[in-house]
Amino acid sequence: MAVTLKDVAQAANLSVASVSRILTNRGRYSENTAKRVRQLAQEMGYFKNQSAADLASKTSRAVGVVVPLIHTTFGDEVIKGLYEATMSSGYELLITYIDDDEKHQTQVFNTLLTRQVGAVFLLSLDIPEWLMNQLAAENVTVISLTTILNDRISAVTSNEFTMMDTLVDYLTKKGHTNIALIGDTKLTTNISSVRRRNFIESMKQHQLTIENAFFYGEDHSYETGYRSVTEGYDIDALPFTAVIATADLVGIGLVNALTDANKNVPKDLSITTIDGMKLTEISRPGLTTIQQNFTEIGRIAMNLFIENNIDKQQKIIYVPTKLVERESVATIK
């Protein structure tokens, strides 16, 4: 049978209430007594029933993290940051996955609400308005990670325009005027349309027209990068000299497609990416990239909640990014 709080109290010759206060860090007690009780609990194999404790106190030490079912290369880094911030706080991460199915979305969020989570972190998700309204009605703190969803939900992210403008500026200074945005360039979601709009705006600010801009793809996958120059455009007569890939995997797909066609990066095509994960470093050639600090995004977001720094007013926090220059961009004379 499982060891109960009463068993620990009897072994320590203390009341159940006293042992409960010690194990939950509440009330007054001597350090020697606390040390003895904690050691006894560990030796006896006592584990706190957090769900029961939450029910009794009518509060929750759980937070939900909702992750897209489609794998992202950076998701684990964001979750790592969330986890690091919870290690000393006593909060529990409940990680769940979501797809585009409305019935499944309802089930996922109802499950989190049933657990009385104190907060929900949305990892690079574009969820419908009715779900937003449901979370607001339940008075649950919602924080978006890596993207700004609307003018109500707080977010911790990188500055999307700064990232895009940095890459466009870098490429134009290298002599490139015809530039392609390849990856998730569709206009059907908030997340993808923001990068497309920022790309067009940055091109305009660099005195380039829409005729200098090229687009391909509907997702951030390796396959999209590969197909962009094998099916989307003629690899032997590309109308652009440089690419901004909307994710690292897209850039890797481009590199491999060119390599398979006996082409050279950056001689035949210059490639840059957004995200800056390990993939860009181990690629050959190494890929010039805008590196986002995903672990810090997760850490800052969790601390915002733990320190109760989120109120009814939307709060947007931008985490700095940096340009990492490698060997994938040529200078055009």
UniProtKB/TrEMBL annotation:
The keyword Transcription regulation belongs to this UniProt entry's keyword annotation: yes
Keywords of the record: DNA-binding, Transcription, Transcription regulation
InterPro entries linked: HTH_LacI, LacI/GalR-like_sensor, Lambda_DNA-bd_dom_sf, Peripla_BP_I
Domain HTH lacI-type: 3-57
Coiled-coil intervals, chain numbering: none
A Pfam entry, by short name: Peripla_BP_3
Molecular-function annotations in GO: DNA-binding transcription factor activity; transcription cis-regulatory region binding
Name recorded for this polypeptide: Transcriptional regulator, LacI family
